[in-house]
């Protein structure tokens, strides 16, 4: 790895209703997958400012209460760049999430599938997300801080190469 780039990743959550808003990425990196809202931190911008800007650009909402949750590093075998992703949840905002050029927002239940059905919301679609999400979402949803790194290698035996641990941010 020859350089580290800062990114943000923000998830709107209504804790009391067990709801999380995921965006279906419409273009570019990660297209076709559900994820949080976020992107590159621009020069001269704080990570928190970048998180709020991307949230407005991609979901058309303005953050009121935003909290740092964890940090994930992603390395790709064919790239010299290590992605340093700052993960946040937002629990209060202005406006409602709406479709933008980059994202189609959809509410999901944070409950297991059987319980999610009873409130008429899809559960979190891990099969249609980045494969690492399934590893750190349990900590994220439990509001435990987390740090981890995932290395995406050319598939050798179909297994993910990853390591997760509880830790300081
Ligand atoms: P531009 O160049 O403006 O279209 P920008 O919106 O700045 O792009 P983008 O969307 O490419 O940046 O940023 C990538 C987003 O994908 C960040 O929010 C981090 C997130 N991301 C990247 N790899 C991920 C992974 N393995 N798992 C995950 N999120 C990932 O959950
Ligand atoms: Na983005
Ligand atoms: Na951007």
> So what's the overall shape?
globular
Order of helices and strands: EEEHEEEHHEE
Distance between the termini: 21 Å
Beta-strand level of the residues, as a percent range? 35-45%
Biggest sheet architecture? 8 strands, mixed
| Main structural class | alpha+beta
Question: Unreliable segments (pLDDT under 50, ≥5 consecutive)?
Answer: 161-169
Q: What is the helix tally?
A: 3
Bound molecules: ligand 6U4, sodium ion
Helix content: 10-25%
Strand elements, count: 8
The mean pLDDT is: 92
Rg, please? 16 Å
Short summary of the structure?
The protein contains 3 helices and 8 strands, in the order βββαβββααββ.
Record the SSE blueprint.
Elements: E1 3-14, E2 19-25, E3 34-35, H1 47-59, E4 62-76, E5 81-94, E6 103-109, H2 113-118, H3 133-141, E7 146-152, E8 161-166
Parallel strand pairs: 1-5, 4-7
Antiparallel strand pairs: 1-2, 2-3, 2-6, 4-5, 7-8
The structure holds ligand 6U4 and sodium ion (2 copies).
